[in-house]
User: Fold these one by one.
Assistant:
Number 1:
Amino acid sequence: MRKVFDDYRVLSDETLRPDEPRVEKFLQAMKKSLQQRDNWTFWLPYTLSLDTCMKCGTCAEVCPVYLASGKKDIYHPVYRSDMLRKVYKRYFTLPGRLFPGLVGAEDLTEEKLNAMAENVYRCTICRRCAYVCPVAIDNGVIVREARKIFDAIDIAPDELKKNGTQKQIKFGNATGTPANAFLDMIEFLEEEIEDTKGYKVKIPVDKEGAEYLLMHNAGDYLAFAETVMGAAEVMDAAGVDWTLNSPAKGVNDAVNYGVFYSDAEFTTIVKAHVETAKKLGIKTLVVGECGHAFEALKYLMLRLIPPEERPFEVKSILELEDEWIREGRIKVDPEKNPEPVTYHDSCKLGRLGGMYEEPRRILKACCKDFRELTPNREMSICCGGGSGFAIMEKGDFRKFRMETYGKLKAEQLKASGASIIALACSNCKGQFREIINYYQLPVRFAGVSELVANALVR
Amino acid sequence: MPAINVGGIEIEVDEDGFIADPSKWNEAVAKALAETEGVTELTENHWKVVNYLRQYYQQFGIAPMIRKLCKETGFSLKEIYDLFPSGPAKGACKIAGLPKPTGCV
Amino acid sequence: MDFWQVLIGGIMPYMAVITLVLGLGYKIIYWLKAPVNLHWELFPYPRTLGEQAGELLTEVFTLRSLYIHNRNLWLPSLVMHYGIYLVVFWLLFLVAGLSLAVYLGVTGGSLVAAGSLLLFLSRFINPELRRISGPVEYLNLVFLFLLAVAGLSSGVFLDFAFRTYIISLLVLKPNLSLPGNYLLFLLLFWLFMLYIPFTRMAHFAVKYFTYHKVKWGEVE
């Protein structure tokens, strides 16, 4: 794969087709993206961000990629947005058509298209930039809109599309786990809980009319089983009426990669989630430890699906754990987690989701020695796993993630002195698993539910 | 489509180096795939993992949970990383001729 | 009658004001009618009208985000913006007949000149800023600088009697006996008014939407 932007390649040649003509179709798709009716979902922040960036560079002062790369100009958030903005000005604004040189309007060439297609997969859309911008311009939304335009001309990472959203619709989960394998996993997890904790927990599956349907990121069963086990133990200890669901009953994977790159895919999956919840007749959909799944179901879905068509509440497992600890529904003993623990605010749960204090209250109740990372909360630094990056490994991309976002997180982690980093998002877990390995840190990661389950007093 | 050479025969792999057609796997292919992963010798321990993966995949159509893999083979996760530097999903599954695991793993 | 007096003193003021009001008005209505976007808030955000007003005023009068995250630009930007606010107040005080107006005008003009010059130099000298700046970013600052300098050097800010001209405009009977060197200042002033609705000078209006419709969500 030849170099089209930097030393990495997220998109294979098969996907990007770097030597084929695509500019014409890109511009057609871009024209549609600027129309309110065709692209209403983010039309306002998108067009205002394209139009009104004052080029002050405040965003760059807080951008993790830019800073960690040593302020490489190609990773400057304005540089990235300008890749789309210059094209916007040239083809879709009057000054750009008349005096391109003056207003910074440029023709789109095939080479620039290649570079843009790659660069939009260097930003995780953590929106730290949007948070600090004096005019609230959002480079993240511009990146997402550019990804949507690329998707419209069939350029999207296969990890997100072919092996992501499309697989999820086909199999009920993005991992391709069939129902019999899923039930085998549940049986195994019940055995594991009994082996390690000494008590039996029955994990209900496909129970109709239950109060809580807990849906995990399906990858958690495969890669982060301790989170799934912990959550099951917590639900059991709380004595509530709950269930998991298998792919035989619809979608049993909380993920929605459409959040990262496509409204069309996003909508398809949200509708599948809603259908699944309605068919099971559950009252509350509980999102497991997955950041973008929480954003999708708690917030993004609200104005997409009218309330009468989604007759259930949505909560994060963290909200429930926080509630139950505070009201004494589950009892926890912090002495059972004696090691120093710190918490990483996942972008989707924190800055984009508003859940800062719930996980902290939980961890302070369940762990003897809780410490903060610095910075944290709304200024938390993205780990670099978001937007699906944690599962993208082609073209040396892991090295990019480790040398940019990963470097900053490793420093923060070391400075905290913690030996456990609590994470409530699968992409973060995937990324930190690599960071800890890459930087040989004497740290392990743990799901929040895992730590709660450790601390349970039954 | 890229390919690896196994004793003179070209075996197609996908962009991540996983075998394109799992039915073409055999021990020689495994050794060739191992080379691409920087594993120069497949020891008894390697084969224990590979065989368990293949058996589970043939039964269930998907790779097993990492936790189950560790339990059934008796290796800790660290030991699995020692045997397969890219880890259970990207390293061991590749050498065992499973398709690339998808989703957040 | 002198052509330039008529054009700059008599016709352009009305063109400029009408264009500014209609142009800005049209854009604001256009944005107000935009489809409601999906929830895309950034947390934490002020929830009540009072909290929102507080944050808005803090941002406008202290440029807090620059202070915290981009300190190098904070003071020149604050100076320039305060200068602009003072020039606006100069006009209002002039119309109201308050002699304090002159001090506001001169101070405002000086601050705008100083601020815009410093920002121009920052953009040019700082490599990070230079890389993201095109000709129009420099031109915007030059425009403001020339406007301020024209006002200062012509003496219009110092001239309380300029009030008669402004009042004459308001009663639709423009008094076209302006000193020659006021004309350049006025020309730049009206051109700036024409410039505002079609460019990023309207960012003060855009901010309402990016904050209240997107970043802070709609007030519940």
Number 2:
Amino acid sequence: MSASFREGALASIPVCVAFFAITVAFGIAAHASGLAAGEVLLMSAVVFAGPAQFPAIELLPLSGQAVQILLSTLFINFRFAVMSFALVPHLKRVRTGGLMVGAQLVTMSTFAVSFLRFQRRSDHDNFIYFLGVAIPSYACYLLGTVVGYHFGVRIPAGFDEGISLIFPAYLTALLAAELRERRSIVVVGVAFLATPVVETLVPGWGLILNALVVATAAIGVEAWWESALPSS
Amino acid sequence: MGERIAIILAMGLGTYLLRVSPLLFAHRLSLGPRILRWFQFVSYAVIASFVWFGLTRAASPAGTMGFRIIALGLTILVAVRTKNALLGMAAGIAAVLILARVGS
């Protein structure tokens, strides 16, 4: 096992914990919706995106919902295109076959861990590092789905609040531990505060649209600031 | 059963195309520093948006939102001080569990 893969696998531990908890919840909900075990596991394997899977398990048992399920999946998962674009500069040396396999493993968390590491240190082993993060995470995702479906029907009520906080707490901790540059911290703060406003204005698109607007505004302000500095 | 499997496979295919298309068709593009900076900001902003999404999506009693915000504050504090995301996450989750017990 290469050092980069090992480094990625170590960094994936919080992702695994979060994925396991999230997919246990997903497995429980899918079981309650009346889906078959094979359908639930197949969905986790091929979609690998919790925010799109939870709405789908509500709609799948109903008839005539195919178009709505597919459109909502595409809208919710559009963020993956943005994430893949952001990874492009860091995966330039990877062959097409590797990219085609690795693409399936791009998620919010695997992207966040890898991208933040690439900001700190980007080298020829980027893809191996990404696989080190993504493969254990994928395994935990599938394992959590199976455990949730078969064994996790009864979770003590007192733990619901903790389980539901795993996902945001993990991303928050990741940003807090990694971000040092003041402008990036401002972008994160503004994006967080603006999300409910944009999501209310454009339901279903708020997360992506908000990120695009905030980032574009930040670039504009930064360019203006840099051009204004010499004359001030 | 067959229709459901087809829908699930179509969900997977659509999601996969969103993931793979930029990697296949954009990786030979030469991107300027401003574009790269924009991608960096977009990525941070998406993550921040997801924090908000994750914070609010769970159907919790209204009173627990305050606990969750306090817990995320503690998460930030611990993660910044220790530079360890796992410790920060653990501190936040422990905090919300304790606050929920105390507050109920």
